[in-house]
Amino acid sequence: MSSAGRALPDVGLVVAARQGDQRALDDVVAASLPLVYNIVGRALRGHADVDDVVQETLVRVIRYLPALNDPAAYRSWLVAITIRQVRDWETRRRVALNRDAGLDVIHNVPDPASDFAGMTILRLGLTDQRREVAEATRWLDPDDQELLSLWWLEETGEITRNEVADALGLSPGHVAVRIHRMKEQIQSARGVVRALRARPGCPDLGAVTTEWDGIPSSLWRKRLARHVRDCAFCGRLGTTLLPIDRLLAGLPLLPLPAGLGAHLPHAAAPAAAAQAVAPPSPTPGPAAGPTPPGATDAGGGQSVVDLALNRPRGLVPSLAAGVAAAVLAITMAVVILPDEPSAPSWAAPPPAAPSAVVTPSVAPSPSARPSSKAPVAPVVSSARKGVGVWNFAGASQALANSKAGWYYTWGTQHPGISTPRGATFVPMIRSAENVTAAELARAKAAGPYLLTFNEPDMPEQANMTVEQALDLWPQLMATGSRLGSPAVAWGGPDPQGWLDRFMTGAEARGHRVDFITLHWFGADFTTAAAVAQLRQYLQAVYQRYRKPIWLTEFALIRFAGGGPQFPSQEQQAAFLTAATAMLGQLSYLQRYAWFGLPATDKDRSGLFSDGTEATVVGRAFQAAR
Fold this sequence. Notes:
- The protein is α/β, with parallel strands linked by helices and 625 residues long.
- The chain contains 25 helices and ten strands.
- The strands form three sheets. Strands 3-2-1-10-7-6 form a six-stranded parallel β-sheet, covered by helices on one side.
- α6 (116-124) packs antiparallel against α7, α7 crosses α10 and α21 (466-477) crosses α22 (498-509).
- The longest helix has 26 residues, at 74-99.
- The radius of gyration is 25 Å and the shape is globular.
């Protein structure tokens, strides 16, 4: 789904900021702020110094951005800088504690309103087992809190395992071992949390906790977990625990506190938050560098760059004020669905169209420049959830209303279609004829991901031989983007199939393929059967290539003589709901995209008939994660 952290700046924006564009610099820093805040806040367990470490991180980003050699590596670089600042803070804290044991009162007590487990539960509305996972993180060893901050972001789709490894200065294999150990600690802590919350509780557990002071710690986790493991009553409580990876998949970043979120460009906090949290004073403190000229937000207040460079410590409102204020009604907000299934929201009547939205009467011309102002829209509900888009009347508003976290257009541009706030556009090099200098430059600027040859095994699509694709592949690698394999129409796991021969040839030539791209269309309109067939297909492909998968086209469509056949809208919606729930359980399935956004007499799997009128299938997609 989605938080602002999933909308980190694209390569073009980073390049502009490196070259001195002050507005671009402010946008880069603002887009980076949620990710930095989440890493620091969780690693420091909500310590009162979180705001200061966030500020020090952003100061270094501003100062050293011109020296960044590879703009496409901005996110990895940002995470590494953030972890370095966390470690520097920990070193300073330990020195102070060693110098004067009395400073323990100052340096070890978190801000009581800043406990990240509690704020995650409160501000993301976590329910049931997700709540237990958040509570269990309080029991981790101190040294694992830094790792937790990165692993949590990896599981929620914000960063990759390689970025975690780079930030920690470890090999991916070493990181995997450490994460496995940490997950075991969280799992045992979940059993402890559930046992302590049980009503009626275990009488023997009460005797074990007689001397416990009520504060979670690694020592007491081990003691209580030993009891849970050996106790028949407490042991039964943990038999229904779902896998941690499944519970965390798709969660957003923790929303910024209002005092920080108010400085995001073009983002307005609710009136309650604006009244509860006054903007920081412009009184300058010791500057870490020159304040960029004109670096103010649209309202004339401080920009994020100005805030980072010039904020004296203590001027950003405390996180307590952020919790007390209304949670920002911008892209960081999200609705978390309960763990137990309920009536699908697509079954309800569609909501009334917002009166403020004006839908164009005709489709924009493909050559028209996209509007620089993204449509007002519901929040993105999942960074994994995407949709294939082609232009039609009201396409931009329909895309925004879909709550998709990403989209693509089978090209390197999206003419006439505005990217909603919080969502991302992913370019594609569709066929051999698109491998040109101009198209590759546009794809690189739109990064960091690049989809490649669309159904090369189909004569009416890319229509390419394996050798043609392999010969052109080095030009795609030169963009520096993370590359998806060519998206075959079928036969992904088949030995000696098109994709198998391509992957074998890529390995022989030393070509890089970062993830597998697939299409799947089900001819069986029975929901359970269709979902099972889709899962089997994805599993077979993953077992063959052992790479992350993007499912970039899928729906129920039966291709037979006389044209495609579609199920009823209700059947399609039921499949979409069940399929997306299943996809959320697959750790290797990084993203999916429904086929597609427009709903016409020809494209009856579509989501919207115009900018605001969602079909039954469209309402199911809006509710999906």
